[in-house]
Amino acid sequence: MSTPARPSEASAAARGAIRAPRRPFPLLGAYVALVCLVLVLPLAVVLVISFDTASYINFPPQGFHLQWYRSLPDNATFARSFANSLIVAGASTALSVLAGVPAALAIARGRFRGRGLLYGLCLSSLTVPWIVYGVALLFVWGFLGLRLSIWTLIFGHTVIGAPYVLRTAVAVLRDMPAAYERGARSLGAGPLRAFLTVTLPLMAPGIRAGAAFAFIISFVNIPVSLFVTTAENITMPVAVFNYMQYNFDPSVAAFSILQLVVIGLFIGFAARAARQEA
Amino acid sequence: MSDIALELAGVEKRYGASTAVAGMDLAIGKGEFVSLLGASGCGKSTTLMMIAGFEQPDAGEIRVRGRRIDPLPPDRRNVGVVFQAYALFPHMSVARNVEYGLRLRRIPAAERRRRVAAILDLVNMGHLAARMPAQLSGGQQQRVALARALVIEPDILLLDEPFSALDRQLRERLQREVREVQQKLGITTIFVTHDQEEALLMSDRIAVMHAGRIEQCASPQEIYQQPGTRIAASFIGRGTFLPGELAAAGGRARFAGLGQEVALPAAPAAPAGRATAFFRPEDVRRAGRGKAAAAPDAGAVRAAAAGAGVNPDAQALRLSGRVKAVYFQGAATSAELLVDGLAEPVLLDPAEWLRDGPLRAGDRLDAYVDAASLRIFAG
Known about the structure:
The structure holds two protein chains of two kinds. Helices cover 76% and strands 0% of the residues of chain A. Chain A is built from twelve helices and no strands. Chain A has helices spanning 5-19, 26-50, 67-70, 76-109, 115-123, 130-144, 150-175, 178-186, 191-220, 223-228, 236-246, 251-277. Chain A starts with a helix and ends with a helix. Chain B has a six-stranded mixed beta sheet with strand order 6-7-8-3-9-10, sandwiched between helices. In chain B, strand 12 (252-257) and strand 13 (260-263) form a beta hairpin. The interface between A and B is medium-sized, with 19 and 28 residues.
C-alpha cells in the first residue's frame, strides 16, 4: 500500500464521529446508578443482616459470623421446605416443558381454527392473579375430593409455569423457517424424527430459557402455594412467610439469601440460554 | 411414453375461495430441466410444494415414473429440495448436513463417507466439510444445500428460487454451476423462479405460469421467438404491445393499428376483432433518420403516414417518432422511441444502426417492423 495513512485517518475520523455522541445525557448515568441502588439496597440489607451476630433483626449490624447459615439445616421446617421447593420446582418445570412444547408446536405450526384463542387461553394464567388462582385450585381439589399433597402443589405450579415455556417456545418456532423441518422431511425423516433431530435441537435454547423461568416462578411462588400446601409439603417462601410471623432472628435472612442464590443460578441459566438463541 | 419422469395431471389447489393452481398438466422427461416461471402468486411455488409433498392437491394426480406420489408423505417421495435460503441445519456441520439423508436410509458409515465426499467435491465444497453453516457464505450454503439434496439420489430435484438471496455475480456463477451438475448427473429438475434471465439460461423448457395455469411450455428459444400468449410474451424478453384490430377478409388476415393496415403473411390463431400486435426490439428496423435540430415537420410525416396507411397490402408497420432516450449498457444498447399516436414508447435495439452513425435522444426516426415479425394476440 502506497498510502497507508489515508484509510487510517479516515477511520480515525469515523471513530471520532462515533465517539462524539457517546455521552449525550450526562444525567443518565446518575439516574441508572440510582435505580440500581433502589433495586439492590433492600437485598444488600438482608445480606448484611444474615451475617449479624445479634439474635434479632436490626440494622446496622453488630458483628459478623456465619452462625445463621450453619444452623439452617438444624431448622427442620427450613430444611424440609428447601427440599420441597426444589422438588416442586423441578417437577413442575419438567411437566411445564412436557405440556408447553407440544402446545407450542400445535399453535405455531398447526393449521386449525381458533389457534389464537387457544394460545390466549393457555397464556391466561399469566394474567389471572395468582391468589385468585390459588383459591380456585383449593375449591377444585375439594370438589374432586382430592387430599392436598405435593402432587396437587406440583400441578398448581405447572399451570402457572407452563405458559412461560409455551411463550418462549412459540417465539422460537415462529422465528424458525419452515424450510428446516421441510428439508428434513424431504430428506426422508418422518414427522417425529424431523422434530427430534432438527426442530427440537433448534428450539432447545428457547425451551431452556422458558424452563428456567418456570423454575423460578415455582420457586418464589407464595400465593398459589399458600392455599394448597400443608405442614408436610410446605415450600420455602411459605416457610419464610410463616417464620416471620413469630420469629425475629436473622436465620430467616440467611434462609432468604439461600433462596436468592438458587434464583440467581437459574436467572444465569436463562440468560445464557437467551444468548445462545440469539 | 416410458421416459416421462414426472407427470402432473389436472392438479388443482384452492385456498378457500381463491384458486392457487387450476387444473395443471405437465409432463417432464427424464433428465429434463424445466423452469416454472411467473410472478409471485402465479401458483409456481404451490406447484413445487405439492410435488415435494408439503401441500396436498385438491384434485388431480402427481406421478413419478408412472407411480402416484401425491398420497405419500414428503419423506416417502424421494424428492430432493433446495430451498430459497436458510435451509441448512444450523446445528450440524456441512458433512453432517449432507449425511443426514443417508443416515435415515441406514447407509453404512464407510459408504456414507464416500458418498458425502464425492458429492461435496462435485459442488466444490469438499474442503469445507467440517464448517458450520453459519461460517459459510450464501453461495457456499446453497452449494451444500444442493449437495444435500443430491446425495440421496432423488428421482426429482426441486429448486425453489435457490439463487434469489444471492448477489448478481454470484447468482450467475451458481446458475452455470448448478446447470452443469444437473447435466452431469442427468437428474430431472424443476426450477421455480420469477427471473426470466435465469429461466432462459438454465432451462430445457420453460413453463410460463399465470393465475394458476401454464400459459406456454416450450424451449426458451421458442417462447422468445414465438410467444403463445400475451402473458408469455410479456414475461420473457421485452417488446412492444400495439392495440388494434384483426380482420380476415378475402382469405388474407390484416392487422389494423396505428392508423395503418398491414397484410399478415400467415393467419394468426387469434379470432377477428380486437387484437394486439407484439414485436421485439430487434424486429424494429430503421428506415431513415430525420433532423432533430430542424423545425418540427411532424405534420408532414404524419400526413405521409396517413397517406400510406390506406394501402391495404403494406408488408410492414411503419413507426415514426422521436427518440425518447438511449441507454448504453456496455455490450448492448437500447433505446426508446416515442411514436406518434402511441402512449407507450417503443423499445428499440439500435446496435446495428449505431455503425451508421450516432443516435441521440430527441432525434427524429422513421422505422418499420416487417409484417412477418408481428405476433397477433386476441384482445
